[in-house]
Structure formats: C-alpha cells, structure tokens
Design goal:
This protein starts with a helix and ends with a helix. It has one domain. The chain is mainly alpha-helical and 306 residues long. The longest helix has 29 residues. It has 10 helices and no strands. Helix 5 packs antiparallel against helix 6, helix 6 packs across helix 8 and helix 9 crosses helix 10. This is C6 finger domain protein.
C-alpha cells in the first residue's frame, strides 16, 4: 500500500519499507474452514499472493532504476535524451521475463493472449466444482479457452472465489510493469526523434503492444470494480495510455512505428483496447471524482459524449 501511494501520489514514505526484509512470507497452513481450504486450492491463492508480492518488489526496483538514471543526467544539454539507455531497459525487461517464466504452471498464460485461461487448470477442487463454470470438470490445456471477454454488453461470466479479479490483477500488473519499462522509448520518440535508432523504434512498438487488452478492462472483471484495489491508479494509467494511443495517430514518428512494426493484429486490438479503457473511465465518472477528471481530459480528444 505504501509503495503504491508513494509512486502514484508522491506521498512521503514512512520508513515501513525498511522492515520488508524482516517480514517473512505467510505460511498459509491454517485455513479457517474446509471451504476456505478448497477455495485456496481451486484458485491457487497462495501462488498468486507470492507472485504478486514478487512482482510488486520488482516493479519498485524497475521504477527506481529508471528514475535514478534520469536524476543522474541533470548536467546534460537540453538537446540530449538523458533517459535510461536501451541496454538498461532491456535488462529490466529481462527481469520481468524471468519473473513470468518462474510463475507456477497453473498461473501461466500466453504472452500475446492476456484473456486466455491458465494452462493447466487446477483439478481436485471439489465434486463437479470447476473454477471455470462452463466445465463440469477441469480439463488442463484447453487451447483457445478464454477466461475474459471483450464483450461488455452481455451478462458477465461468474467465477467462484472472485477468481477473475485475482487473475486479472496479477496479469495487468505484469503488463503495467512492462509498459513502464518500455515507456521511455516513447518519450524519446516524441522529444528526440532525430536520435532514434532501430532498437529504440522496436522498444516503442513493444510498449504499444503491451498496452493492448489488459484483463482488468475485460469482462467480467471490469464489472467488479468495487473488488479492485486502487481504482484511481488504473484510471490514471489508462488515461496516459489513451493519450499515447492518440499521439500514434498524429505524431509522424509514432505513426510510422505503429504502421510498420506493431504487427498485423495491432489495429484490431487497438480499437478494442481504446473502447475498453474509455468504458472503464466512463463507468466510474459518476462516482469517482478522479475518473471524472480523466474523462474531461479525454472528452475533446476522443469526441466522447458529455
């Protein structure tokens, strides 16, 4: 919690983070009841918790390294980039890849398909009681099985133990961390286009592809917003992505990278992702002042209804 508030709102740190190394991982060895035990088994709660904690620590490290590299270049001339080098960013991206590769098998998903069901799906969770409500019994490795949907108009699928929120939060944090790693390439393309290299352009393309179809914006999770922590963080992040997306239609450098390097599926997923993020903010603006602020920023840019 302290890390999120510090990074998002620039609130001062209290020092509690210094105790992090003294606090061990929870043992999870005393469930409250049999139903609690079955629920933990069904959703791989322990693995999700440990993986999310490791990702949060990695994200804090990534953020610190990126901003440290910027703060150490205050003496550069105004016409020099001064941001983190491509080598540094590739190293940070490799750490994220390593985190993802070390995920338990029941948490794995295809990199290019954020909505896919994990494979294999956990078995032995009760009599005819699969996490996926469309299945009578779990069947590992179902190609093409989708946990999330881009269709926000149909009745959302209902998963037990808020399984969709758990999975969507972990995956979206991963894609967000990847977005943070590759975002400096976008800054360089906007402010120092004459210094761009092919490697930098590939970094921009990777940043754009990373922003597509985040699970938090998909159904059913986007219809369970009260269960998602730090809504204001996600609203701000979606605005920043939508602004970058808008610039890819008008900035010559970003427009060329989008057309030439983002791949054949990008345009279709781009339109869907823009609509999903707009819906997220539109859905919250009546109850969340920050979402309303975000909506007012996007309204003239995307010609949104009042």
């Amino acid at each position: 919690m302290e890390t999120s508030l510090h990074l998002e709102l620039d609130l001062p740190l209290t020092g509690i983070l210094e105790l992090g190394d003294r606090v061990g991982m929870p043992s999870f060895n005393v469930p409250f009841c049999e139903a609690d035990h079955l629920g933990n088994q069904a959703t791989n709660f322990e693995a999700h918790f440990a993986s999310a904690l490791a990702l949060r620590r990695l994200g804090t490290t990534i953020n610190a390294q990126i901003y440290d590299s910027i703060s150490n270049t205050d003496t550069l001339a105004s016409d020099e980039f001064g941001g983190p080098s491509a080598t540094t960013l590739k190293s940070l991206a490799a750490q994220l890849t390593q985190w993802r590769g070390l995920l338990p098998r029941d948490l794995q998903w295809p990199e290019e398909d954020p909505a896919a069901f994990p494979t294999p799906q956990t078995g032995n969770i009760g009599v005819n009681d699969a996490v996926d409500p469309s299945l009578a019994t779990p069947r590992p490795g179902r190609p093409g099985s989708q946990l999330f949907s881009t269709d926000l108009n149909s009745d959302p699928m209902q998963y037990r133990f808020v399984y969709d929120v758990q999975v969507a939060t972990l995956r979206t944090r991963y894609y967000y961390s990847k977005f943070v790693v590759y975002r400096p390439f976008v800054y360089k393309a906007l402010h120092f286009p004459e210094q761009m290299t092919q490697e930098d352009a590939q970094g921009v393309a990777e940043c754009l592809r990373t922003c597509l179809k985040w699970p938090l914006t998909l159904s059913p999770t986007s219809r369970h917003k009260r269960l998602i922590p730090y809504l204001f963080c996600w609203s701000q992040t979606f605005v920043s992505i939508l602004l970058i997306f808008h610039l890819t239609q008008h900035n010559p450098m970003l427009r060329d990278i989008r057309a030439q390097l983002c791949g054949p599926r990008f345009e279709e997923d781009f339109e869907v992702s823009v609509a999903l993020m707009q819906d997220w903010i539109r859905d919250l603006k009546a109850v969340d002042p920050l979402a309303l602020w975000c909506y007012k920023i996007l309204q003239p840019i995307y010609n949104l209804d009042p």
